[in-house]
Amino acid sequence: MLVRPKQAAVLRYGWALVASAGAFFISLAMFPLLELNPFLVFLAAVAVAAWYGGLVPGLLATLLCSLLINYFFIIPFYSLSVASLVAAVELVIFVAVAVLISSLNASLLEARQRAEAAKAEVEAALQQAEAAQERLATVALENERLFREASDAMHARDELISFVSHDLKNPLTSIRMLARGVGGRLAATGDPELERLVEPIATVESAATKMAHLIEELEDTVHVHGGEPLRLDRRPVDLVALARQLAAEHQLLTRRHRIRVESELPVLFGRWDAARLDRVLGNLLGNAIKYSPDGGDILVSVARAANGAGDQAILSVRDHGLGVPADDLAQVFDRFHRGANVVNWISGTGVGLVSVKRIVESHGGTVAVQSEEGAGSVFTVRLPLAEEDPRDLPQL
User: Fold this and answer.
1) Which of 5, 10, 296, 353 registers the highest number of CB atoms within 10 A of its CB?
2) What integer pLDDT is reported at residue 267 of this predicted model?
């Protein structure tokens, strides 16, 4: 793993200046041609400054970028005054997201440095053990010491993940609630100029949701590696309503795709973990969008079926995108595995489907894929429907 070297203070703060200046000239060049909203370009500049410089350079870049945006790209131009509520809301949201990006990068860098330090200690201990192999008694004592150090390192890693997740969940929740509230109020105004902001605000909410899901996956990974099963919060969940909600949320993130939900059932209740099923369907919809770069229809189907083992809820997501090569189908749910047709083209981590499989199987269900390269894929989730006590189900 690459380790970011310690940089001189001048160089670290130089990242903030260079990134801000670069974003400014890019936005200045493209703004009159494409009527480009400059916020995303300046957010990228903040991310670069925070990643290479750290928290304070990231905050400095936030300040510089917000001043540049206000002075050059918000009416009235060449003034630091803000003439409209829309501009004020945009600027406040930009600053909030930029500060969050800087904080997240700082936390991630600190986590990486601690993990690398722990790894270096373990590797050094292993080298010492190899040097002492000729003496059996020493080897036994050394192995015991190494085991303790490895356990301590794993414990430190788990504590670090718990610490980071705890500190990030609250601000992420605040960002999501703020974005959802602002978006709802703007959509209800009936003002076309304000309604233009609903989609970018929905993008902010979606990004915060994805980060929250990533944190939850890290927490699940800690539990699984510790030999613990996933702790499911089983409650009555309407799978039809969940599918419609997530389809609507993802539709706000794309204009090239048309996401539809089909179900002959008005409702389909089961006792599942709603938050984790949200992650399952969110992963499948996100992949369907990502791996259909030319757009097209995405169909989410919800049905109920019976087999020898009892009734099942069937949830499927169909796209018409790149598909999965035949040689990769058997490994599609393996950790870090990615299809040969996308690995050098479309970014990804190769862990999303691993999380999907783990969550579905923890519910006693199965997940499968049918795919043809160049024609699209169908991911099908089957979840058991246990007999429900009518008192447990919501009254319609």
Assistant:
1) 353
2) 95
List pLDDT tens digits, range 14-72.
777 777 777 778 877 776 665 556 777 777 777 777 777 777 777 777 788 778 777 77
Is 260:299 a contact under the CB 8 Å cutoff? yes
- Listed as own residue / partner, the contacts of 353-359 with beta carbons closer than 8 Å and 24 or more positions apart are 353/283, 353/287, 355/217, 355/220, 355/279, 355/280, 355/283, 356/279, 356/280, 356/283, 356/284, 356/381, 357/333, 358/220, 358/224, 358/230, 359/220, 359/230, 359/273, 359/276, 359/277, 359/279, 359/280
Residue range(s) of every CATH 3.30.565.10 domain in the chain? 235-392
Domain 235-392 annotated CATH 3.40.50.1360? no
